[in-house]
């Protein structure tokens, strides 16, 4: 059985061209963390950074027949740089378009039904925040309602920044799921 981790990038590219999935897996294992770190340092958003890196590897697989005789690391980092620039450029276009539209939009006032659903959603969110485990709830409240940074929360509670970030991420995931389920269930039982 061939050891792909011992192969250089050129050999992996040659194997990738003939659709060797193990070569692709080795390329992914070799460059995934590097690319993620690079993207995260530029955009500072974990989920978006993961999405960008995943897209890079999807494109690499889709273009595998056309990547002969390339510098693999240079190719991957160039694709990554271009993806980041496109994403930032697109964000600016959307922001500019939204700003331009806001000058022409008439103010819209919520009707009674919208106010009712907004209050109902707010009550559901409050209940689910109260249902979080005590430490997770405390970290979430400091982050979202006191607007403290992860570093400030970590110092205040004697935790590591990584623990704080992880707790915030878990609380957001939990809240999205539980609030989503409650909203879905409330919609199912409304006739």
UniProtKB/TrEMBL annotation:
According to the entry, every stretch annotated as the RNA polymerase sigma factor 70 region 4 type domain falls at 124-175
CDD domains according to UniProt: Sigma70_r4 (cd06171)
Q: What is the top-level taxon of the source organism?
A: Bacteria
The RNA polymerase sigma-70 region domain is annotated at 28-89
The record's Gene Ontology cellular component field reads: DNA-directed RNA polymerase complex
Gene3D superfamilies, per the entry: 1.10.1740.10, Winged helix-like DNA-binding domain superfamily/Winged helix DNA-binding domain (1.10.10.10)
Instruction: Check the record and name the InterPro entries matching this protein.
Output: RNA_pol_sigma-70-like, RNA_pol_sigma-70_dom, RNA_pol_sigma70_bacteroid, RNA_pol_sigma70_r2, RNA_pol_sigma70_r4_t2, RNA_pol_sigma_r2, RNA_pol_sigma_r3/r4-like, WH-like_DNA-bd_sf
Q: Which UniProt keywords apply?
A: DNA-directed RNA polymerase, Sigma factor, Transcription, Transcription regulation
Q: Would I find Nucleus among this entry's keywords?
A: no
A family per Pfam: Sigma70_r2
Family membership, please give it.
Answer: Belongs to the sigma-70 factor family. ECF subfamily.
- NCBIfam families, per this entry? Sig70_bacteroi1 (TIGR02985), sigma70-ECF (TIGR02937)
What is the protein's given name? DNA-directed RNA polymerase sigma-70 factor
- Organism of origin is Sphingobacterium griseoflavum
